[in-house]
Structure formats: structure tokens, C-alpha cells
């Protein structure tokens, strides 16, 4: 109880401090909020909204039944999961944070997967998208698409390794649920009410993501005021707050390309605290836990760091 009170006191103190900094530096804070808003409007909405809307419609229809039949042999053999997990895995890779977690939570609510299966899925189904890595980081910031392709190989290789490790961790729980949680065939039709519900669900999630991006962009702006001499480790630490701004810091850091490549890959694999907050928001109404997810992302980041280091000769 005492620990909880101390924790709440520290959070309240940090919020008051953040408010004071915003009031003392309104122009700088407004610029940070503006950058976060533009990132959300120009990048997140057009890339995430279609995936979220279509995923809502697919999960609410009988299409998910046929996906389960098609992918079950592959997912059972590699991950020990039902075929619907493959849908969350592939969509999570293509669409980016936090869609993989959102689909995993939706599949759990629909009874298509069990709780242990869903908790295991979170360890590898929620990732940065190829569009973000190749388009935003490599082409937009570096001006070299080839770097993005190599970074994609590093991050996704490390992600598969993490999934294999966690299959061993969750082996006992998964074995007890081997025949549970498979998608059932339904004749449910896509009606306008389901379509409206899917649209509102997608809009709500997109607005939440925008709020988190803006909030953590302001925090990063305040952290930059800390009088520390320019160093890439400082940029990496500050970058842990928000993904897009963190990648910008590391790309422009005064370090060699191999060092920036390794740290960028590690940062993207970890996902930053802004992404973790977004993930927590999409699983909060389920029995899924955020702490095991963050621990898995930390392990994934370490594996990514090692993998990126081994890939340096290909730069």
C-alpha cells in the first residue's frame, strides 16, 4: 500500500512538473505538439486506419474461419498456435504498432484464441511496419531505401527468434489449451450496424494513438532541455519516449552509420514507451497483461541489437 502511494505521488509530481515546463515554454511545447499532430495526421491515419477498419470487419465476419483453416498447419508447426494467430501476425507486421496487439485482443474477445495463446501472441505480433521502416526512416530520414530493407531483415529475424524463445516459455500453458480457442464457423453477415461499429472502433483507436503521440512528443521536448553534452546514448535514451521523434534524433546523431543502424534497429524493435502506452490502451478491457509484453519487447530489443551488430558488414 505504501509503495502504491509513493508511486502515485511520483506520477503526480512528474505531471505537475511537466505542466510547469509547458507553461514556462509555450512556444517550444506548441511546436512539439504540432509535430506530433502532423505525424499522426500525415502518417498514422492513412497507414493505420484502413488496416484497423478492415480487420474489424474481417474479425466480425466468417472470413476469420477460413483464415483459421488455411493458416492452422503453418502456425501449429512453427508457433503451436491456431491459424487465426497467423492473421494477427501477418497484419501486425504489415500495419505496424499497435494493430497487432489490437487484433490479438479482438481475437481473444471473440474466443478465437485462449488467454495463454493471446499473451504469447503479444510477444511477436506487435511490430513496426515496413512502410515506417523503409518509407519513414530509410527513405525519408536517411535517403537510402537499402538501409530500410536491411533493418527490416534484422528486426523481423530477431522477432522470429523471440517468438521461438517464448514458445518454450509458454509451452506448458499452450499444451493445456491445444484444442481450445479455434475460430468457429458463423454465418454472420456484414450489416451496416457492424460497419458503423467497426468505423467507430477504428476512429476511437486512431484518436487514442494521436493523443499518445502528442503527449510523448511534449515529454521528449522537455527532456531535450536537460543539460547533457551531445552523445548518441543520450539521443537513444530520449528516443525511448516516442518512436518517430526518437528515430529522428538517432538519424541526425553525430555517430558512425553502423552505430546509428544498430541503435535504430534496437529502438524500433523495443517500440518506445509511447507505443507501449498505445498497446496498453488496446488490451485494457481484456485479461492480457502489459508487463510480460514489455519484458518480451526488452528481450526482443537485446536480440535485435546482437542481430544488427552481426548484419553490419552488409551495410
From TrEMBL:
Source organism superkingdom: Bacteria
Segments traversing the membrane: 79-100, 120-142, 149-169, 209-228, 249-273, 293-314
Keyword terms, alphabetized: Membrane, Transmembrane, Transmembrane helix
The protein, known as: Sporulation integral membrane protein YlbJ
Species of provenance: Vallitalea pronyensis
Amino acid at each position: 500500500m505504501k509503495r502504491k502511494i509513493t508511486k502515485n505521488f511520483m506520477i503526480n509530481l512528474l505531471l505537475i512538473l511537466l505542466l510547469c515546463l509547458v507553461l514556462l515554454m509555450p512556444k517550444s511545447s506548441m511546436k512539439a505538439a504540432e509535430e506530433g499532430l502532423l505525424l499522426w495526421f500525415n502518417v498514422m491515419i492513412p497507414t493505420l486506419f484502413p488496416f484497423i477498419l478492415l480487420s474489424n470487419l474481417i474479425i466480425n465476419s466468417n472470413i476469420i474461419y477460413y483464415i483459421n483453416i488455411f493458416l492452422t498447419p503453418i502456425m501449429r508447426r512453427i508457433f503451436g498456435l491456431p491459424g487465426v494467430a497467423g492473421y494477427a501476425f501477418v497484419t501486425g507486421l504489415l500495419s505496424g504498432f499497435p494493430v497487432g496487439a489490437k487484433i490479438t485482443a479482438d481475437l481473444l474477445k471473440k474466443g478465437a484464441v485462449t488467454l495463454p495463446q493471446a499473451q504469447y501472441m503479444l510477444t511477436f505480433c506487435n511490430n513496426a511496419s515496413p512502410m515506417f521502416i523503409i518509407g519513414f526512416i530509410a527513405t525519408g530520414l536517411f535517403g537510402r531505401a537499402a538501409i530500410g530493407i536491411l533493418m527490416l531483415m534484422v528486426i523481423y529475424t530477431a522477432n522470429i527468434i523471440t517468438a521461438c524463445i517464448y514458445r518454450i516459455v509458454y509451452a506448458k500453458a499452450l499444451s493445456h489449451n491445444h484444442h481450445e480457442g479455434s475460430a468457429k464457423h458463423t454465418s454472420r453477415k456484414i450489416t451496416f450496424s457492424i460497419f458503423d461499429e467497426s468505423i467507430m472502433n477504428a476512429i476511437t483507436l486512431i484518436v487514442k494513438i494521436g493523443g499518445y503521440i502528442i503527449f510523448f512528443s511534449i515529454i521528449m521536448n522537455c527532456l531535450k532541455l536537460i543539460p547533457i553534452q551531445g552523445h548518441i546514448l543520450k539521443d537513444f535514451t530520449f528516443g525511448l519516449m516516442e518512436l518517430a521523434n526518437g528515430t529522428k534524433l538517432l538519424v541526425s546523431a553525430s555517430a558512425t552509420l553502423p552505430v546509428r543502424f544498430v541503435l535504430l534497429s534496437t529502438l524500433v524493435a523495443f517500440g518506445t514507451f509511447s507505443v507501449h502506452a498505445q498497446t496498453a490502451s488496446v488490451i485494457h478491457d481484456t485479461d492480457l497483461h502489459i508487463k510480460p509484453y514489455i519484458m518480451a519487447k526488452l528481450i526482443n530489443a537485446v536480440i535485435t541489437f546482437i542481430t544488427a551488430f552481426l548484419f553490419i558488414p552488409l551495410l
